[in-house]
Amino acid sequence: MKKVRTRFAPSPTGYLHIGGLRTALYGFLYSKMNGGDFILRIEDTDTARYVDGSVQIIYDTMRDSGIMYDEGPDVGGDFGPYTQSERKSIYTEYAKKLVELGGAYYCFCTPERIETLKDDAGNMRYDKHCLKLSKDEIERRIANGEPYVIRQNVPESGVGSYHDLVYGEISVDYKDIEDGILIKSDGMPTYNFANVIDDHLMGITHVIRGIEYLSSTPKYNLMYDAYGWERPVYIHLPPIMKDAQHKLSKRNGDASYEDFVKKGYVKESIVNYIALLGWSPKGNQEKMSLNELIENFSLEGIGKSPAIFDETKMKWLSGEYIKEMTYEQFKELALPFLKNSKSYGIYDEDKLLSLAKGRVQIFSEIAEKVDFLEEFGEFDLELFENQKQKASKELAVELLPKIKDALRAIPDADWDNSNLFTVLVDLSSKLEIKKQALLWIMRIAITGKQATAGGATEVADILGKQKTIERIDYSISLLAK
Ligand code: GLU
Hints:
With about 475 residues, the chain is mainly α. Helix 1 (about 20-35) crosses helix 10 and helix 9 packs across helix 11. It has helices at about 20-35, 55-65, 90-100, 110-115, 135-145, 190-200, 215-225, 255-260, 265-275, 290-295, 310-325, 325-340, 350-355, 365-370, 395-410, 415-430, 435-445, 455-465, 465-480, and strands spanning about 5-10, 35-40, 105, 150, 160-165, 170-175, 180-185, 205-210, 235, 240, 305-310. The chain has a three-stranded antiparallel sheet. About 35% of the residues are buried. It starts with a strand and ends with a helix. It contains 19 helices and eleven strands. Glutamic acid binds near residues 9, 10, 43 and 195. The site of glutamic acid has 8 residues, from helix 6.
């Protein structure tokens, strides 16, 4: 069997959006599960849409996400160049060949003439006007320096069919396909031409790409057939939707891989989630590393229906990855995000991060989880009232001085979560009060907040002895007002 070769062929038009990365990922997975090669090709022939810096973004994103290619512009390979703008002479040669084979022809029509072919709605169908030019006339006009394009010669009747591995039998009437431009007047190829030449010359066995190419594929097949080349296997992927009506798209400014990384998603979770956008694993395991994805991926699992991008689910997955991290792994990734918190630099960073770990799904939630430590000030005393915990303002007035005394008796060196807990539990049994009530009152007194990450003793541990006692004093004074 031929070695499987797949490719990702992005146009450098900005950030790598989620749909593009999914196409890359599926191509990568399919080649790797078959011991094949995965190729990166930069399709930069549409100079009007070119965005500076975006090729670098493509390289960086693929490396960063682990979707690494075996061949590509920056890593080389035997089938280069891998950037289309560097392949101009190859396209010219093959376009001439296609003209000789009858699959294409020179067209000298002026923009003014093309204008006259437009219908009321502005749609244009080329009328094959230049198809009938004689060889001599063509040569003479080219020699005269007249501008021209090369158009595909699509049969006027008949049906082009092929089998797509996801969408099944696809048939398109040739009369519905127009004689599109293959080589523009500046000598650059269009996507419609370059993709065929490159996929063939680069030995691509499986073309994996977005559904928008499903119905143009018959015209590409006409070229494969004209050259006498074997057609690749086609796998078109379902669209990714933001919701039932709207496609996810970079033109709408929808998030890219980079945006999600900046938002603090665990990188592996982004790749993992993207794998599930249109593909369902056989079992019910959804959390999978890149290696597990390679083991489990299958073309049969790719569905036809649009995939809905569900950020909540991706967040959940990210949280699952965080849960499995060791504290050291978590710290390395989380520290840059902790720096955005008001509490950073004031309290022990390991204590802050331990408080946050297990309570966040994405790293950017860390700051808000620990900000409360630095937001202490006048608060609503009704917070002491909690029927469920059997706490009340009256009880707070009575207990806080006793809590304070007990805390003051703890030597500085013993001030930690577990000692604090022992001391307070002992105090509650001595006073014959439910420990929940005491801990509730203490937490409200030192945070002034209904809900916080961490219980009373965890928070007191981070605040330290002096600050904890100062806050208790402050709360006592509030209650006395
Ligand atoms: N350059 C095309 C795009 O970005 C690639 C389509 C293909 O994979 O053939 O949509």
